[in-house]
Description:
This protein is mainly α. It has 13 helices and no strands. It has helices spanning 2-37, 55-62, 64-95, 101-113, 116-126, 133-140, 157-182, 186-194, 199-210, 212-228, 231-236, 248-257, 262-295.
Amino acid sequence: xxxxxxxxxxxxxxxxxxxxxxxxxxxxxxxxxxxxxxxxxxxxxxxxxxxxxxxxxxxxxxxxxxxxxxxxxxxxxxxxxxxxxxxxxxxxxxxxxxxxxxxxxxxxxxxxxxxxxxxxxxxxxxxxxxxxxxxxxxxxxxxxxxxxxxxxxxxxxxxxxxxxxxxxxxxxxxxxxxxxxxxxxxxxxxxxxxxxxxxxxxxxxxxxxxxxxxxxxxxxxxxxxxxxxxxxxxxxxxxxxxxxxxxxxxxxxxxxxxxxxxxxxxxxxxxxxxxxxxxxxxxxxxxxxxxxxxxx
Length: 296
């Protein structure tokens, strides 16, 4: 038995060698180099760079266009955050004995597997002010007065883009919640039903606590996705008009490849990593605190 345990341990260690090497080479070292680069004025093609200390960080905090981009990211974050309870409700509904549930699952997940660029182009035509399908739909229902320049009005463009993002990614979250719900032990749920638990009590005291790891993952994925959103605004509006629909990642890439300021772009990339961690920790404490209060 001792020999078998040693073989298992040896097998696990050997299996972790290659992933660990890849992690160090392609994640750890680049992250360290990114942090180092954030203190330089490297332009992306020169052989040398100058150490400028916290100059890039000071410039980043003073950049009004970057703060505007970050506010645009907040629209994606809060829109998806408010949608998570709805996604969870859909997952509970689809895991119940619902007629044509397989068809609904396929329809819900289909947008996620479609290429993001293709989706962005499709919705660009959908919201086009010239013969766009959305305006035509409004005309059919005699709601033409609601027509807007959906992709060029600074007041609504981010909400339109956030809607496209919701359409694409909500199905992914629903499938994740469904997978977590279907992994719950059936005997526990059956025992709760026998004891007289209704659907809401089952959801609150059995299903939610049992899938909290998946809830945490979806919340983290929402933060990461909201701060790193790129393809939808890039294809549909290119960040315009002006910086009205620009995002933090879009502005970072523009800083690097348009303005040739890789040092400042590296600073922004470091800021994104820090924000993801900080927002996740704060959000996690708030969510778990609300759950504990609800249990009491």
